[in-house]
Amino acid sequence: MYIEEYLDVFISGLTNGSVYALMAVGLTLVYGVSRAFNFAYGSFYSLGGYFAWVLMVYLGLSGGYLMVLLMAVPFLIGFGYVTEKVIVAPLRKRSDWEVKVMMITLGLALFLDNGYQVLFGPRMKSLPPIMTGAVELGPIYIANQDIMIFVLAISGILAFRWLLNNTRIGMAVRAVAQNPIGAKIVGIPKNRIFAATFGISTVMVGLGGILLAQKYFISPMGGWDILVKSWVITAFGGMGSIRGGLLAAFILGMLEAYVGYVFGMTWVLFALFGVLLATLAIRPQGLMGKWG
């Protein structure tokens, strides 16, 4: 009996960890390219959830999650791109612009969260499961919903990896992240790359919001919990390290599942920060980060 319960918790941790990995990679991407932290990242998570809720529940759009995801990708890319151009890009010409970006994205987060409350009300929203039923493996039942969430999250990560390694914009992103001055010298439009990475990261966290909204509720202030977890994963894996972020996401996803099961959900953030502090005390650059 206990083995079955712990396997169920393992599956839950693996599912959540895959979505956390998708979202943490987006936050790591923005930091790795621009060296600035986006405090509105959690609000973009809520944006994805509310976008899907409007289409599926409020408007009753036919086509299911496939249609929602096809519509969400260009919407989220456009939202992130325009946000960077209008709000973040003008600050880059000023001194200490990284700190100013943190402050203005914090203001954007508060603006968006209050906007969600005005438009959708304080009550929590939920999305229907992407798939019902379960797969039976002996004494273990794995919900088809968890399988699809895992598959879609991993597909998003693989698509991102393909984008970085096999497209011109992906190679430009890597060049700017490795050497911004050298990238500018060889003619790479650094400002466009900054905006593009902002748009890509918005897609990744927004899709995470759509996937997790099936298991959890959407609320106006729900993005702050995701922001904290994404920051912990990014710091734990190593600031700017995508591989480190992936590894940290699955480790902390498992830790969250087992701590929540054994001690209760109120202890989850305590455990996450405890692991983060212990890791940074031993290895300040994170699991796979480098000194810079």
From TrEMBL:
Membrane association type: Multi-pass membrane protein
Main location: membrane
Protein localization: Cell membrane
GO annotations of cellular component type: plasma membrane
Keyword field contains Transcription: no
GO BP: any one term: amino acid transport
Keywords, in A-Z order: Amino-acid transport, Cell membrane, Membrane, Transmembrane, Transmembrane helix, Transport
Claim: Transmembrane is one of the keywords in the record: yes
InterPro entries: ABC_transp_permease, BCAA_transport_permease
Transmembrane segments: 6-32, 39-59, 65-82, 103-120, 140-164, 193-218, 230-252, 259-282
Gene Ontology terms, MF aspect: transmembrane transporter activity
Alphabetized PANTHER family for the sequence: AMINO ACID ABC TRANSPORTER PERMEASE PROTEIN, BRANCHED-CHAIN AMINO ACID TRANSPORT SYSTEM PERMEASE PROTEIN LIVH
Family the entry assigns: Belongs to the binding-protein-dependent transport system permease family. LivHM subfamily.
Name of the protein in question: Branched-chain amino acid ABC transporter permease
Species this chain originates from: Desulfatitalea alkaliphila
